[in-house]
Predict the structure.
Amino acid sequence: MTAHATFPGLLRSEWIKLWSLRSAWWCFGIAIVLIAGIAALAAGAIGSFAGDATGAAAASLAVQGSTVGTTVGELVFAVLGVLVISGEYSTGQIRSTFAAAPKRSGALAAKVLLFGVVSFIVGAVAIGLSAGVSLLELPEAIRSTATGDAGYWLALLGAVGSLALCGVLSVLVGAIVRSVPAGIAIVVGLFFVVPVVLSIVGAITRQTWPSNLAAILPAGAASAMSSYNNPSNVYNDFSGDALWSFLPWQGLAIFAGWVVLLWIAAEILTRHRDV
Amino acid sequence: MIEATALTKRYGAKTAVDAVTFTVQPGKVTGFLGPNGAGKSTTMRMIVGLHHPTSGSVTVDGKAYRDIKAPLTEVGILLDARAYHPGRSARDHLRALAATHGLGRKRADEVISITGLDSVAGKRAGGFSLGMGQRLGIAAALLGDPHTLILDEPVNGLDPEGVIWVRHLARSLAAEGRTVFLSSHLMSEMAQTADHVIVLGRGKVIADAPIAELTASAGSGAVRVRSPRAGELADSLRRGGVTVTEQPDGALLATGTTSEAIGDFAAQYGVPLHELTPVHSTLEEAYLELTKDEVEYHSGGEEAASEPAAPAAPAAPTVTTEGDAQ
């Protein structure tokens, strides 16, 4: 037999594993419906007060309308990301996975990369639909301003990227905690609870640090990635008193930093633990 | 060939596997026996790198498992715990595993046929009976047509037909020159399958021998004798230093001697013999004898573990006769 364990083989295996469970079909299906559905619901409202916005304001409005469902979509991607790996630990599947890839790093990398790529593609479909239904509701003037603005398309790409990175980050969290409930609690907390708590703390203390801390957490980085480069925001002032604002590429860099950090932790733990 | 050298695994203060050294040879079925909790599963998991040894090492055909380039084609493993996702079909599980080594759908379908899973291969594995789950585990182990097979409690949950199937499978794989290492806590199962047995008790190797040798050595041989002049024969034998006990049916059980010696002795004294039968302890008895001090979880105190062996074991015939004499 001329069989070899190869990285493309591991990717193929992860592809088969992902689509042979119902959870992937459900979660990706729900994410697409939610992202496009929320955009459809919000489009009417945005269209009604868009009025005669022009230039950057028009493009910014179009970005908001097209990516309004991203945050909720991230939640669904995050849950699936945790399931993809914690589910293996909780069921015992991980023993088969690691028996076939005893160095383990390759199996972890294949899982993370495959889920990231699939999330990116599904995210692109969802954001594409979302943008489509949103643009149709906007006045012709705003629509043409937005679609003629590279910043609009960059924001959409950022939204898709943030969905994919959310999935990747959740796979890594799942690899670290190995438990489905704990993993889901952590990603939901990190993306939805912590930012809300920080904004409340910020409102009470009237300090800038809670908001700045929120901005460098994954959720903050994700929203920076899908934001329209608004000239009214002050960028690149990271002094203690300033309210930090990040450009899309800076959001991407921050999110990538989180991914690298968690990947290192997941790699070390995965390699050393008994399964 | 599997070679373990001073292989040790500690969980905190508890030593699960304590410096075990053994070799599992190709071309035969090697049984791995021991009471529950003796460290069999931990040892098997260390062989395939799922558990990391605290110290010591283990290799398969001279290589550490994690250094094997195509592990599925060299070692197949069935674990005692479930190793598949219940939401996935048996076919998809096997295809995903096969894909890691570029083995393809055809091979997945082949092992499905070999293990008799054809009719349920498309169903979610979570609905499988224990026996079906075992078959799926064995199918996964066979996927890469490996030279070494490690099967942890393979007959667990199988119906009688399945047990016989596993027995034949293990024997035929060994006959092809493969290394077959299978664990069980049931000696009777090993007696019918294994050529060689490694017995583990409380994490230590307490026996490592061909099955025949183990039977012969444990529990000294005894000879059952019937004679119309039994009383006279018993007295003469006792004078000759042989331990003789009367059996309830009037026969004598002589220990510490051979049937040849008794036959010669009887001929010399002109005592007629109606029966002269060497009594070998069964493997089950030999096993209980070996592990009686090593059982970790006694059922109801110290005596429970050794007691079942006593009535049948020729090694301790006095227990029987003392009760009967009154």
